[in-house]
Amino acid sequence: MPPVGSHGDPPAAARAVHLPCPAVPEPPGATWSNVLRAGNEVVISGMTAHPACRERAMDAHAQALECLRKIEALCQAAGVTLDHVLKLTVYLTDVADKDAVARARRETLNPPYPASTLVGVSALAFPEVRVEIDAVVRVDVRRG
Fold first, then answer.
1. Comparing C-alpha atoms, which of 94, 119, 104, 18 is closest to residue 69?
2. DSSP assignment, residue 17?
Protein backbone atom coordinates (compact mmCIF):
# COMPACT_ATOMS: atom_id res chain seq x y z
CA MET A 1 0.00 0.00 0.00
CA PRO A 2 1.44 3.43 -0.93
CA PRO A 3 2.26 5.87 1.86
CA VAL A 4 -0.34 8.51 2.55
CA GLY A 5 -0.04 12.12 3.61
CA SER A 6 -1.44 13.64 6.78
CA HIS A 7 -4.91 14.06 5.25
CA GLY A 8 -5.16 10.58 3.76
CA ASP A 9 -3.94 11.80 0.35
CA PRO A 10 -1.06 10.11 -1.45
CA PRO A 11 2.19 12.10 -1.54
CA ALA A 12 2.52 14.47 -4.50
CA ALA A 13 4.85 12.07 -6.36
CA ALA A 14 2.09 9.44 -6.38
CA ARG A 15 -0.63 11.69 -7.81
CA ALA A 16 -1.91 11.54 -11.36
CA VAL A 17 -1.38 14.76 -13.29
CA HIS A 18 -3.78 16.06 -15.92
CA LEU A 19 -2.00 16.96 -19.16
CA PRO A 20 -3.74 19.69 -21.16
CA CYS A 21 -3.70 19.21 -24.92
CA PRO A 22 -5.03 22.11 -27.03
CA ALA A 23 -5.20 19.82 -30.09
CA VAL A 24 -7.65 17.52 -28.24
CA PRO A 25 -9.51 19.70 -25.75
CA GLU A 26 -12.00 18.30 -23.27
CA PRO A 27 -15.48 19.72 -23.77
CA PRO A 28 -16.67 22.28 -21.22
CA GLY A 29 -18.08 20.51 -18.19
CA ALA A 30 -16.41 17.18 -19.03
CA THR A 31 -16.36 14.73 -16.15
CA TRP A 32 -13.25 12.96 -17.45
CA SER A 33 -9.68 13.77 -18.44
CA ASN A 34 -8.43 12.93 -21.92
CA VAL A 35 -4.97 12.12 -20.60
CA LEU A 36 -3.41 11.60 -17.18
CA ARG A 37 0.18 10.89 -16.25
CA ALA A 38 1.07 8.95 -13.12
CA GLY A 39 4.83 8.53 -12.84
CA ASN A 40 5.95 6.89 -16.08
CA GLU A 41 2.47 5.71 -17.05
CA VAL A 42 0.16 7.73 -19.28
CA VAL A 43 -3.49 6.73 -19.59
CA ILE A 44 -5.53 8.02 -22.53
CA SER A 45 -9.32 7.99 -22.46
CA GLY A 46 -11.28 6.50 -25.33
CA MET A 47 -10.93 8.71 -28.39
CA THR A 48 -13.53 8.88 -31.14
CA ALA A 49 -13.88 10.74 -34.42
CA HIS A 50 -16.54 12.97 -32.88
CA PRO A 51 -17.26 15.76 -33.79
CA ALA A 52 -15.66 15.27 -37.23
CA CYS A 53 -17.88 12.28 -38.04
CA ARG A 54 -20.94 14.42 -37.29
CA GLU A 55 -19.76 17.06 -39.77
CA ARG A 56 -19.01 14.62 -42.62
CA ALA A 57 -19.57 10.94 -43.31
CA MET A 58 -16.60 8.86 -42.16
CA ASP A 59 -16.17 5.12 -42.60
CA ALA A 60 -14.53 2.98 -39.91
CA HIS A 61 -11.08 3.42 -41.47
CA ALA A 62 -11.34 7.23 -41.41
CA GLN A 63 -12.71 7.15 -37.87
CA ALA A 64 -9.87 4.91 -36.68
CA LEU A 65 -7.33 7.26 -38.28
CA GLU A 66 -8.93 10.20 -36.44
CA CYS A 67 -8.84 8.29 -33.14
CA LEU A 68 -5.16 7.48 -33.64
CA ARG A 69 -4.42 11.10 -34.63
CA LYS A 70 -5.93 12.25 -31.32
CA ILE A 71 -3.98 9.60 -29.39
CA GLU A 72 -0.80 10.81 -31.10
CA ALA A 73 -1.52 14.42 -30.06
CA LEU A 74 -2.16 13.29 -26.47
CA CYS A 75 1.11 11.33 -26.51
CA GLN A 76 2.87 14.50 -27.65
CA ALA A 77 1.30 16.36 -24.71
CA ALA A 78 3.01 13.75 -22.51
CA GLY A 79 6.32 14.26 -24.34
CA VAL A 80 6.31 10.91 -26.14
CA THR A 81 5.34 9.39 -29.49
CA LEU A 82 3.03 6.61 -30.66
CA ASP A 83 6.04 4.28 -30.27
CA HIS A 84 5.48 4.52 -26.50
CA VAL A 85 1.93 3.11 -26.74
CA LEU A 86 1.99 -0.35 -25.17
CA LYS A 87 -1.71 -1.25 -25.20
CA LEU A 88 -4.77 -0.23 -27.20
CA THR A 89 -8.37 -1.18 -26.61
CA VAL A 90 -10.57 -0.82 -29.69
CA TYR A 91 -14.36 -0.66 -29.39
CA LEU A 92 -16.38 -1.29 -32.56
CA THR A 93 -20.12 -1.07 -33.12
CA ASP A 94 -19.62 -3.55 -35.99
CA VAL A 95 -16.85 -6.12 -35.56
CA ALA A 96 -16.81 -6.48 -39.36
CA ASP A 97 -14.94 -3.12 -39.33
CA LYS A 98 -11.89 -4.78 -37.73
CA ASP A 99 -10.02 -4.97 -41.05
CA ALA A 100 -10.54 -1.24 -41.70
CA VAL A 101 -9.20 -0.48 -38.21
CA ALA A 102 -6.24 -2.83 -38.76
CA ARG A 103 -5.41 -0.93 -41.97
CA ALA A 104 -5.47 2.38 -40.07
CA ARG A 105 -3.19 0.88 -37.41
CA ARG A 106 -0.69 -0.31 -40.06
CA GLU A 107 -0.73 3.18 -41.62
CA THR A 108 -0.15 4.91 -38.27
CA LEU A 109 1.81 2.64 -35.93
CA ASN A 110 5.26 1.10 -36.23
CA PRO A 111 5.96 -2.58 -35.55
CA PRO A 112 6.13 -4.24 -33.19
CA TYR A 113 2.51 -3.18 -32.73
CA PRO A 114 1.01 -2.48 -29.30
CA ALA A 115 -0.82 -5.20 -27.40
CA SER A 116 -4.50 -4.85 -28.20
CA THR A 117 -8.01 -5.88 -27.29
CA LEU A 118 -10.95 -5.53 -29.68
CA VAL A 119 -14.43 -5.33 -28.19
CA GLY A 120 -17.72 -5.38 -30.07
CA VAL A 121 -20.28 -3.05 -28.50
CA SER A 122 -23.93 -2.31 -29.26
CA ALA A 123 -23.42 1.47 -29.29
CA LEU A 124 -20.97 4.28 -28.51
CA ALA A 125 -21.63 7.83 -27.24
CA PHE A 126 -23.10 9.15 -30.51
CA PRO A 127 -24.94 7.20 -33.23
CA GLU A 128 -22.43 8.16 -35.96
CA VAL A 129 -19.44 6.97 -33.90
CA ARG A 130 -18.37 3.49 -35.00
CA VAL A 131 -14.88 3.31 -33.45
CA GLU A 132 -13.42 4.26 -30.07
CA ILE A 133 -9.83 3.61 -29.03
CA ASP A 134 -8.12 4.08 -25.66
CA ALA A 135 -4.44 3.66 -24.87
CA VAL A 136 -1.92 2.86 -22.15
CA VAL A 137 1.46 4.51 -22.66
CA ARG A 138 4.80 4.39 -20.83
CA VAL A 139 7.17 7.33 -21.10
CA ASP A 140 10.12 5.15 -20.11
CA VAL A 141 9.47 2.34 -22.63
CA ARG A 142 9.41 2.29 -26.43
CA ARG A 143 8.23 -0.62 -28.52
CA GLY A 144 10.89 -2.17 -30.69
1. 104
2. E
